[in-house]
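Homework help board

Subject: predicted structure for assignment chain

Our instructor gave us this sequence and asked us to write out the predicted structure in token form, then describe one feature. I got the tokens but I'm not sure how to describe them. Can anyone check?
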Amino acid sequence: MASSMFLAQRRWFHSLPRNLSNARFFSALPSQHPVSVSGPQNNVGPKSNKFEKASSAPSSLKEPELAKFSAIADTWWDSEGPFKPLHKMNPTRLAFLRSTLCRHFRKDPLSARPFEGLRFIDVGCGGGILSEPLTRMGATVTGIDAIEKNIKIARLHANLDPTTSTIEYCCTTAEKLVEEQRKFDAVIALEVIEHVADAAEFCKSLSALTAHEGATVVSTINRSMRSYATAIVAAEYLLQWLPKGTHQWSSFLTPEELTMILKRAGVDVKEMAGFVYNPLTGRWSLSDDISVNFIAYGTKEK
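My token output:
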């Protein structure tokens, strides 16, 4: 069954329009321009298990999900802790962002600061492990999270480096910023949508935050038998990379579903890639294989 689903997904991917399936631009970053992923590895933040969230009730978020991540907020910058998989995946996520967004905004991907002059928002920023390298790449970054502990950790860590101390961190939701009519050149929500209560409403907010001719990037986990075996059974129970219960398989979205949801929200998916883990090297790479982890880049429709 897993094999047939995998083959079906592969056939679907290769049947996509040419500008999506044949765009092979997600190569690794040039070695002469390394990207700092994690910054200083300090243990920061108050030690507390109290559940903290944004002051106004977020409409697209699940309260149990907020409580679950609040409980491990202190470990965001522990590269061997519960967020180890994200630390490992971060260089690959950044490679995709550099490639697609430089092309979209006509920036030089070989530049050390290719995102100079662009406004990015990191939705569900957690402790800031993506916001910080994006800032070092020149972007003016706003990081938002509904968990106040995450924002406190992110601010403390960002202030350790003058380069990242400029990040605007806010304990709020995408919906709240839509009400404030905020706009960004690129709206980025990585490994977040599988934790929200209403994916369609969440994507409408992402679209509303995206400026005219801007870009939207979303990554998540495919709802396939292979993802159940690897992202839940293996990662949470066998290898114990993640706390048990981190993911709910029923909350995952297939690439077809995510593409349709974004389309209805006004975002046209232009490119998609998979994240593949090599257990021999311990590294992630970009691939055509979207059967487990995948990332999608789209543009705001007129």
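Reply (TA_rk): Your tokens look well-formed. For the description, you could write something like this. Residues 189 and 218 are 5 Å apart (CA to CA). That's the kind of observation they're looking for.
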